[in-house]
């Protein structure tokens, strides 16, 4: 409990410092009016509280907080990024103005010579320390306002584009992945892969229907839903998830849990997804028998799962141990980092999501610190890992540099 309180306190301090910085650059530096500065300080304080209120409130049914809170979170992020990038050129510009102001100062008149030691002569006056003059305050104000306007327009434009992108239809990507063990007769086996649908406060049944229709048009051999389907309970979102029951494929539709299922009542959701007709692969594997050969399809629970029963943690030995090593095996695992363990069992291909492709550039750079592959096809210790960007979003309804995505994975024989 103490650790949770400390973490919450740390997050609040960080958010508060970010808003203090934004107030300094966007308000204090751009106006001489005390009244406007006080108003800006009040607004910054309220927006500071809005962020944790949104994160907590949307988990407790206060969905009306989602749009203003999450959109501001995205604006805050991009304002911080743009202003941070501007710090260096602003510093250079201020110093250039200061040097020009110093150079423009008239030279001080030379003092009249005084004969030292002459009768009645006073001691020469000591040289007075004079601070270099600052440049014109009006120019400093203009510079600050120009930076604030540029940051505001850039952040607003970026977020506006990102909202349009996030709420639009997922992009269909097709990728061919060769597997050394794939029988010749199974060449071209197609797996429709989707992750991170994130049904919740901002996405509902229409979102699911659009994704299901898109997948069904592909006429795939398999459908893989690799976690983070929901952000809420079955009671809240069961109706929104219901269209999944209409998924079509030749050899079945499959599901593995993501970390968000464990925040949303994982046992209920496992039963609900199974009821809708998707086979939930919880630390098990399934033989996919076709007229041309056999492929093992395995699935593990999310690597952050804990508990017992349906909430048991990932068990790679249970899913991958004691199998025919001559068969190709495809593993469904929500997080790409699962490949570190999967590679020890000779997995040929792992299909994952979780990263959202970074969702909002440059946040993707931080994701690289946690996951071996952020988006697309990569490799971990000999195991190929394909990471789809996900069809939804979490938090801000914003996607910049990482389009929502459904992927058709086509397996190719050597």
Q: Care to describe what's here?
A:
The chain is α/β, with parallel strands linked by helices and 414 residues long. It has 2 domains: 2-103 and 136-164, no CATH class; 171-412, Metallo-dependent phosphatases (Purple Acid Phosphatase, chain A, domain 2, 4-Layer Sandwich), CATH 3.60.21.10. 40% of the residues lie in helices and 15% in strands. It has 10 helices and 12 strands. It has helices at residues 2-28, 34-57, 66-104, 137-167, 205-216, 234-241, 266-275, 316-320, 339-342, 364-367; strands spanning 171-178, 190-194, 222-225, 253-255, 279-280, 284-290, 293-299, 329-332, 349-352, 376-380, 383-387, 405-412. The strands form 2 sheets. Strands 1-12-2-3-4-5 form a 6-stranded mixed sheet, covered by helices on one side. The protein has a 6-stranded mixed sheet with strand order 6-7-8-9-11-10. Helix 9 links the parallel strand 8 (329-332) and strand 9 (349-352). Helix 1 packs antiparallel against helix 2, helix 2 runs antiparallel to helix 3 and helix 3 (66-104) packs antiparallel against helix 4 (137-167). The protein is elongated. Mean pLDDT is 91; it is low at 127-132. Residues 189-357 form the Calcineurin-like phosphoesterase domain. It comes from Micromonospora carbonacea. One of its GO terms (biological process) is lipid A biosynthetic process. Keywords: Hydrolase, Membrane, Metal-binding, Transmembrane, Transmembrane helix. InterPro entries: Calcineurin-like_PHP (IPR004843), Metallo-depent_PP-like (IPR029052), Metallophosphoesterase_sf (IPR051158).
């Amino acid at each position: 409990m103490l650790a949770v309180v400390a973490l919450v306190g740390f997050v609040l301090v960080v958010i508060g410092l970010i808003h203090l910085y934004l107030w300094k650059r966007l308000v204090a530096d751009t106006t001489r009016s005390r009244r406007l500065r006080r108003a800006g300080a009040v607004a910054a304080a309220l927006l500071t509280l809005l962020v944790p209120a949104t994160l907590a409130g949307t988990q407790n049914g206060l969905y009306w907080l989602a749009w203003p809170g999450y959109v501001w979170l995205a604006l805050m992020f991009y304002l911080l990024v743009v202003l941070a990038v501007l710090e260096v050129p602003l510093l250079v510009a201020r110093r250039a103005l200061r040097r020009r102001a110093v150079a423009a100062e008239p030279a001080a008149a030379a003092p009249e010579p005084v004969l030292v030691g002459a009768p009645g002569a006073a001691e020469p006056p000591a040289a007075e320390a004079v601070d270099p003059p600052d440049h014109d305050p009006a120019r400093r104000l203009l510079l600050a306002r120009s930076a604030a306007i540029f940051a505001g327009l850039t952040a607003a434009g970026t977020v506006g584009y990102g909202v349009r992108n996030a709420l639009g239809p997922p992009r269909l990507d097709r990728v061919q992945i060769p597997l050394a063990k794939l029988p010749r007769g199974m060449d071209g086996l197609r797996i429709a892969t989707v992750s991170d649908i994130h049904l919740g406060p901002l996405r509902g049944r229409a979102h699911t229907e659009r994704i299901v229709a898109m997948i069904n048009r592909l006429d795939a051999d398999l459908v893989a839903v690799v976690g983070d389907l929901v952000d809420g309970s079955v009671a809240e979102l069961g109706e929104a998830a219901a269209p999944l029951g209409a998924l079509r494929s030749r050899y079945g539709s499959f599901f593995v849990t993501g970390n968000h299922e464990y925040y949303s009542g994982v046992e209920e959701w496992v039963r609900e997804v199974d009821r809708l007709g998707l086979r939930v692969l919880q630390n098990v594997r399934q033989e996919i028998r076709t007229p041309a050969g056999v492929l093992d399809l395995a699935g593990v629970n999310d690597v952050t799962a804990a508990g017992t029963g349906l909430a048991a943690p990932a068990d790679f030995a249970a899913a991958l141990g004691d199998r025919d090593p001559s068969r190709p095996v495809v593993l469904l695992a929500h997080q790409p980092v699962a490949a570190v363990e999967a590679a020890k069992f000779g997995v040929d291909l792992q299909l994952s999501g979780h990263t959202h492709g970074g969702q909002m550039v440059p946040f993707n750079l931080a994701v690289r610190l946690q996951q071996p592959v952020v988006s697309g096809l990569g490799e971990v210790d000999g195991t190929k890992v394909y990471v789809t960007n996900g069809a939804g979003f979490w938090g801000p309804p914003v996607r910049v540099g990482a389009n929502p995505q459904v992927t058709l994975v086509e397996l190719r024989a050597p």
